[in-house]
Structure formats: structure tokens, C-alpha cells
Design goal:
The chain has 176 residues and is mostly beta strands. Helices cover 2% and strands 31% of the residues. The protein has one domain. The N and C termini lie far apart (59 Å).
């Protein structure tokens, strides 16, 4: 995705080009030039620029903005793979019956439970947001119609944040 910024006659910058006041600033690339690597393992997303080592703007052609409308995208949605997600959860529990006492009632018991989340402690990345998917910024001057592509995204490609690791939750429940 490219971040689209339009400069109007007053010099203000906006991004609601296609739909006025939409504040939708993203447009898809016109073409994928190829050459990106294909390491879709989690290790491939931990190193900066692993699948796109020459920078994000090297692999994609920005769309042409004509009369306020971007050209048709040549890269379909969901064309590239992100890091895999895998989480195995497990629960262990045991209930102990308590002796019959007038104070406790007939069915008094103590339940002990341990919940394990992400048992194998695998690294799972936070899903990519638009900031991580930005290839660069397209600046369009509404008066002259000139278009410049700037600001290649230095964080394009790698996973920047991870979800929680292994979590263990202990529970005790007394019912009477």
C-alpha cells in the first residue's frame, strides 16, 4: 500500500482524494516487479528487510493518479504471505470431593485447574497494520498534477511486535 497525500490550492495536505473527506489515504501498487524473497517462516520476519532487502519501493510501481483517480491496482489483496500463527492451549484440572459435613453440604468439592496458553512458547507476531504495509508516500499536487514518490518505509516487511509468550493461569474453586 502507498500512503497518498494531496496538496490542494491553499497548500493544505489531505488524503481524501478519491472520496472527499474519507481520510482513506491508502492505494495499492500498480505493479509488482518481482524479486522479493520468499522466506515466510517466523525467522524470515524477525530480520529487518529479509524478504525485501533492497527497500520497499524497489519491488512495486506506484499507481498513477489521473484526475483524482488512481490507476487500477495490479497487485491483488492478500498477494503476499505474512508470518504464520500457531498457538496450542491446554488445561489440566482435578476435582476433589470433600467429606460430608453439615456445614459444607453433601456435594462439597475443591476444583484445581491450570490453564496453559501458547504451551510451546512459539513466537507469534502481531498482525500487520497499515503502518507496516506502507511501501512509500505518493505526493500529488492538485494544481499542477505532478506526482512524486517519497519516503520509502524502512519498517516494511519484518514483524515488529510479538504477542504474549507462554502464559500459565492457576485456578482454585470451592463449591458447596
Amino acid at each position: 500500500m502507498y500512503n497518498l497525500q494531496v496538496t490542494d490550492p491553499s497548500g493544505a495536505t489531505t488524503c481524501g482524494l478519491v472520496y472527499a473527506n474519507s481520510n482513506d489515504c491508502t492505494v495499492r501498487p500498480a505493479e509488482y516487479l518481482g524479486g522479493a524473497l520468499g522466506d515466510y517462516s517466523n525467522a524470515g520476519f524477525t530480520r529487518s528487510g529479509e524478504n525485501f532487502p533492497n527497500g520497499s519501493t524497489t519491488y512495486f510501481v506506484p499507481p498513477t493518479i489521473t484526475d483524482g483517480v488512481p490507476s487500477a491496482p495490479g497487485v491483488a489483496r492478500n498477494s503476499f504471505w505474512g508470518p504464520r500463527y500457531s498457538s496450542v492451549d491446554m488445561t489440566l484440572g482435578k476435582a476433589f470431593g470433600l467429606p460430608h459435613l453439615p456445614v459444607l453440604g453433601e456435594n462439597a468439592k475443591l476444583d484445581l485447574r491450570a490453564n496453559f496458553y501458547n504451551v510451546f512458547n512459539q513466537t507469534d507476531f502481531v498482525p500487520f497494520n497499515n503502518g507496516q504495509q506502507q511501501i512509500g508516500t505518493i505526493n500529488v499536487n492538485e494544481i499542477t498534477g505532478t506526482q512524486t514518490v517519497t519516503s520509502p518505509n524502512g519498517t516494511f516487511g519484518p514483524g515488529l511486535n510479538a504477542l504474549a509468550g507462554r502464559v500459565i493461569e492457576l485456578q482454585a474453586r470451592f463449591s458447596f
